[in-house]
Amino acid sequence: MLRHLAANVLTVLIVAMVAISGVIYWGQSQYTAPGPLAEPTVITVERGARLDDVTETLLEAGAIGNDTIFRLGARYDGYDRRLRFGEYEVPAGASMREILALFASGRSIQYFVTIPEGLTSWEAVQIINDTALLTGEITEIPPEGSLAPDTYSFERNATRASIIDRMQAAQETILAEAWANRQDGLPLDSPEELLILASIIEKETSVPEERFDVAAVFVNRLNQGMRLQTDPTVIYGITLGQGPLGRGLRRSELDRATPYNTYQIDGLPPTPIANPGRAAIEATANPSEAPYIFFVADGTGGHAFSVTYAEHQRNVARWREIERSRQ
């Protein structure tokens, strides 16, 4: 009888084990099988969200079909302790395990804001304040020249202040590297002076291959005790960086003494006049060895460079003829 009882118990255990194995196999297959989403769907994991919160969000979005299996799988794989807040694009047909892996990876949706080279800090702040999906408002304009132009990625609800912080940190790094690798004998006494001159070069040309020659012109003029005589500094003295002038300069403005009018002052203006990019900063730190003293627009978007004033006057005459032909 005992033998018969033992056989029955063994049979029950075997059946139970088979049943449990079947349930586990079914659960695992459900956990890793393609999910019900028919198209990519954006799901937000809120800051501080728990596994139950995430599960409810996914159920409401139709991204999972069985909340029990989702919870069990998350705990078994340890994803319940590794979920990271953010906005995620869940692919169509993503399995429960794939969704959890995505939420644990932190690879949330990235947005972008671009600050072009040569904008003033006031103009850069306008772009950042007008950029949707960021939070907070920039009310204090950062020092001129302190922002590195670039395209910056961010997550939804990142702060605008964090973008400014990243731009300033990047510009500090760029400037420090350029100063450490600068050419010997530059007439610049500090990284700040290099930044000032780089901002002028940034405003004078948008042609990459010209930057080193434009830098050479200003370095040569400084070395010879000549005034820089550059229009962008005069414009900055009028607008103080709060938007473009929107018209040509008047003779009275060229003759008016301001701290930024390099037709009237010796040396550099007191601050940068824009936010120069890496290329302009590096060109300023390592200008070409050309002996140029002058340059003027050549009608192609670039400039004609010259060593003597007589040659410069001929280039100016050609440029004025081009201007007249376009009227």
TrEMBL record:
This is Endolytic murein transglycosylase. Its EC number is 4.2.2.29. It catalyses: a peptidoglycan chain = a peptidoglycan chain with N-acetyl-1,6-anhydromuramyl-[peptide] at the reducing end + a peptidoglycan chain with N-acetylglucosamine at the non-reducing end. GO terms for biological process: cell wall organization; peptidoglycan biosynthetic process. GO terms for cellular component: plasma membrane. The record marks E204 as: Important for catalytic activity. It is a single-pass membrane protein.
